């Protein structure tokens, strides 16, 4: 194994471990053994070319490497960072001559033996060696229809991507110069600074509320140990800390309120109640500097906050009344998708009781809402005995629950009663697809 490849593979191993230990979501990391001399010779014969030395050394050491990562869900990604995804790698399977499927003129000349690909991004942009330019590494941006230089050679490219922590920048043209990726450009400097802080900051070192919030900005709130850390602080103080950030930076209103609800909970209750007042709602929507772009967005945020901060009955009553008010105001039906977006997180059977009077279509979000609201066998039987629409909602919900392995608890008697009812519905059904759907449910019921 060549020295440079050995160093790079070790650096990638160390990088993946460090990112994993710091809480990055490692989607996939896999490596394969190197190619044998005979396999390499066979590949060269297929391509009709002797592979460049650096590519030979890479493939003989590791024929395939894939590293995919993603930010934790509730990390605050600064707006100043370049748009990116976590993906790096190469594969012997992808080694081949590049042919632009749309317009060969974009590569500068009609020559199908100039660019030798060895990798591609998730967006389908091939990474290639430019045979006629000292084997520099280039990338074909298919949406722009142009080729951009990423590095003077393969080794430099891999070492550079390691310094970028395996990040694939969506707009390489914004962070490159005539020599390739410019690690000194402002955007990539900010990315490296952000990642350095991400890897170095620790929960154990967060001994104040401000430090804990900073940790949360980098690592999110999903882990139970992070949520438990907030238990040491007064709920109202937590709310005030997030609220102050929201006032200073209203452009991230959705993020601040998400963190506020998840960590302050009842500490935010009074402010959340105020959001149900028309004047306050209008201020956040139509003020001189609106906090959100649309009414639906603000309603969704308000419902999420109500779930986090208010007693369930109070929160649901507010949402029910608002959905009904909007329907009557505009003389229209309640939209099932809107209802699902605001109510699904409650997982409450009160929602099922409420929606019976409003559902007008067995799909369009209503079946999903019914499923997430934890129906019992008794509730399923009740809906199967109701109107045709209620029946179809319940049938669709049974399909969803079976796919998720989330059927309500039932004994043998419950299962038999449910099967009997479904057989009766199947017998009177007209559409074959509906009959088949019910048959599949019956076949999968327990007992």
UniProtKB/TrEMBL annotation:
Residues 34-160 form the Knr4/Smi1-like domain. SUPFAM superfamilies: SMI1/KNR4-like. InterPro entries: Knr4/Smi1-like_dom (IPR018958), Knr4/Smi1-like_sf (IPR037883). It comes from the Bacteria. This is SMI1/KNR4 family protein. It comes from Bacillus kandeliae. It holds the Pfam family SMI1_KNR4.
């Amino acid at each position: 194994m060549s020295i440079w490849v050995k160093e790079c593979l070790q650096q990638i191993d160390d990088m993946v471990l460090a990112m994993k230990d710091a809480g990055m979501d490692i989607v996939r990391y896999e490596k394969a053994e190197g190619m044998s001399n005979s396999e390499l010779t066979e590949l060269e014969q297929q391509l009709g070319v002797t592979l460049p030395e650096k590519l030979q050394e890479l493939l003989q050491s590791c024929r395939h490497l894939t590293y995919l990562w993603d930010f934790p869900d509730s990390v605050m990604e600064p707006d100043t960072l370049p748009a990116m995804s976590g993906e790096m790698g190469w594969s012997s399977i992808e080694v081949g001559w590049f042919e632009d499927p749309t317009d060969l003129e974009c590569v500068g000349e009609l020559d199908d033996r100039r660019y030798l690909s060895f990798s591609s991004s998730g967006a389908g942009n091939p990474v290639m060696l430019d045979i006629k330019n000292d084997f520099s590494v280039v990338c074909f941006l298919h949406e722009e229809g142009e080729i951009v230089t990423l590095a003077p050679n393969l080794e430099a490219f891999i070492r550079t991507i390691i310094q970028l922590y395996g990040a694939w920048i969506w707009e390489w043209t914004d962070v490159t110069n005539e020599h390739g990726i410019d690690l000194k450009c402002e955007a990539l400097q900010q990315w490296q600074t952000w990642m350095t802080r991400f890897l170095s900051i620790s929960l154990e070192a967060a001994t104040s509320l401000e430090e804990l919030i900073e940790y949360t900005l980098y690592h999110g709130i999903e882990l139970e140990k992070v949520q438990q850390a907030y238990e040491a602080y007064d709920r109202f103080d937590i709310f005030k800390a997030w609220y102050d950030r929201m006032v200073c930076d209203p452009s991230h209103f959705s993020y601040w309120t998400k963190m506020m609800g998840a960590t302050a909970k009842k500490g935010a209750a009074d402010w959340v109640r105020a959001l149900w007042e028309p004047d306050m709602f209008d201020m956040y929507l139509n003020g001189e500097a609106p906090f959100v772009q649309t009414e639906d967005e603000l309603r969704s945020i308000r419902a999420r906050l109500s779930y986090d901060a208010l007693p369930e009955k109070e929160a649901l009553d507010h949402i029910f009344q608002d959905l009904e008010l909007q329907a009557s105001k505009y003389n229209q039906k309640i939209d099932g998708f809107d209802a699902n977006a605001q109510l699904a997180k409650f997982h409450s059977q009160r929602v099922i009781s409420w929606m019976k009077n409003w559902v007008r279509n067995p799909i369009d979000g209503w079946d999903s809402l019914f499923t997430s609201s934890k129906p019992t066998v008794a509730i399923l039987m009740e809906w199967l005995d109701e109107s045709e629409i209620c029946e179809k909602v319940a049938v669709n919900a049974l399909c969803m629950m079976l796919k998720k392995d989330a059927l309500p608890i039932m004994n043998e008697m419950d299962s038999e009663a449910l099967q009997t009812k479904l057989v009766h519905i199947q017998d009177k059904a007209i559409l074959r697809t509906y009959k088949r759907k019910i048959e599949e449910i019956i076949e999968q019921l327990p007992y």
